[in-house]
Design brief:
alpha+beta, 10-stranded antiparallel β-sheet, 14 strands
Amino acid sequence: MMDGSCQSKLAEEELRKYLFGNRTFHYWNGRLENLLVGVEAEYIIHRKGEPGSLLRKQDFIRLIESLVKVGFKKNMSPNAHPYRVSKDTEVGFLSITPDFAFHIVEIALPPRADINSLTSLFSETLELLDLALGSLGFERSKSSYIPCEKSAYDLVELHEHKSFSETSRVNVSNEFFTQDFPAKIASTHIHLNIGSEDSLKMLPALYELEWYSSKLFSNSQTIEGQVVHDIRSLLYRDCLGDDYLLKNVPKEIPKNITEYLRLYNSSPQLFPNKSFFPVKDLCLIRPTSVGTFEFRSADSVSDPKELLKIVGFRIGQLIYATNYQDNPIDRRNTWQSESHIFHSLEKNQSPNLEKEQQSLRRMISSIQSIKEDSNWTSTIPVIGAA
């Protein structure tokens, strides 16, 4: 159990300024033609043919040198991530960074306004990464989960990571408890430039369809003979505990800044040594300080076509939420209840199939009602056919 009793409380104006006061990307203003899509793609890296032999710190340092040879640069500024390399392209700035541990490698692509530049950049960056990894005898795993012991990997030695690793969280008897769980998972995060204080009211409707993401975009994992879906959510449940309110699908989904602030100030500190924002939002959908909403539940993907399916689904969620933000299905009886989430993930069953089907019908109806053509329209019918 984490102790948050002594933490200082964040003021509403501080949170408002942090999330919405200095956006990096323009706001979409309710129009698909203004939509930007950004991608953070994470991968587990291991030696070729040896899933248990993970990329270690010294290997990542060699990887940096290989990437520098193909046009990436180290950021030498004092406050930069010490192991991040980046590259300026004709469509924007991209980076490759080790996440919580050196074997979790993240590609961050600049938000794009069209399908072609997004998929081209994704493919080209993966090709460069794979060439660099291959030259060192490593490869990307096809799995999004690695059940490894702590001795098998090296944490990135950032102060906040060390603080997180040492923070006592919950009873280790929980079924999916694992120390340093961020070192075990890799995901595909999609950013849409829809972040604003007013957009918070869309969160209940956005979450109304989040159950479908685990069915479409989860690489099912077999853990001790049990097939599970969306391992990230199960790890968050068992590693963070009931008192951490900003995880997975919140029991009370915030619809405004006041409700969001209450969840933040009521959650224990994951990073108690950080002077600012020691609590981290680990929800499946969250606002960011650059002006986006980040959708975080999909597993790793390598195929651009699979990436576009995820993008299309997220845009479909957005269209649905704009139509039904004032009239979501009763959340007390939908997948948004935590017991429903985990019954669905662990057993691959749907206790509220009727409600789920109702959500899908409304989503398809929303998609079919689109009259606006845009650079993203062609991705969306993938969902109507799913």
